[in-house]
Give the backbone structure.
Amino acid sequence: MSIYIFSEITADYPADCPKKDLTILPMTVTIGDDTYDNVTTFISPKEFYERMQAGALTNTAMVQPFMAKEAFEAKLKEGYDVLYIGFSSALSGTYAGCSRVVEELAKEYPDRKIAAVDSLNASAGEGLLLWYAVQKRDSGASFDELVKYVTDLVPHTVSLFTVDDLHHLARLGRCSKASAMIGTMMSIKPVLHVDDEGRLMPYAKVISRKKALKALVDGMGERMLPAEEQKKVFIGHGACYDDAVLVKTLIEKNLGVNTVEICDIGPVIGAHTNAGVIALFFLGKNK
C-alpha cells in the first residue's frame, strides 16, 4: 500500500531532497504590509531577511485545519495511507489542529491508515526527521513500521543553534529585554537547543560569533551517534552562508561526518530568529 507523507513549511526541507509522494503544507508570513505563503505568493529568504534587517515587522500564521483536512482527505480518497509529521507542539498550535484532523479522518476512513507524529522539533530538525521518514518509506517499510520508526527517531533528532541578535530571543521570551540589551553590548552569543518537550532552551553562552559556531560543532561531538549513522546532517542558515560553510568544514574535519547539507532557514522560522541564525541538526544519543 502506498504511503503519502505530509509536513509543513516550518521543516525548511531542502529543495533538492526527495519529494515523491510528499507535500509541504504552507503557512503564511507577513512582513510589512505584504503576506506570502510561498505557494501562490513568494518571497525568497534573501529578500525576506533584507527587509527584516531594514526594520520591517513580521508575523506568521499556523496551518489552518480545514486546509490540512482537504489535503489529507484527497490522498486518502486516492488510496494512500497518510503520515503527518508536525512542527513542535510546544512552539505552535499547528500540530494540535492537524492531529485533530487526523483523528476525525481516521473515523471517516476506517479502511485507510492515517497517523500524526509530533516532531518536537523545528526548522530543519523537523526536516531531518522528514528526510529519514522518506528514506524509510522508500526502502519498503509498512505503514506501522514507518510510524514506529519516526516516533522512535524523535528523541534522537538533535537541534543546536545560535543567533546573532538577542533582541529576537527576547521577543520569543527566551531572555528578558534587559538581558538582551546587556548581552548585545557585551557581544554574548547564546547557543540554544530544542529539548525533549520540543521547547527552545539555553544550552551555552559564549563571547563572540566564532566561539558560538565552534560551540555548535563541539555540542555535536558530545551528543552525536557514530559518524556512520549520520546519513544526513543539515546546517540551516539565515543569510549567513559563509558561517554555514565554516561549520560544515569543522564537522567534516573534526567529526569525520561527510553527509552535511547546507540549507536556508525560511521566512516562517526566520521571522522569529532574524538573519544571522545558524542551526545544526543531526542524530544524537539524546536531545
The chain is about 40% helix and 25% strand. The radius of gyration is 19 Å. The chain has a mean pLDDT of 92.
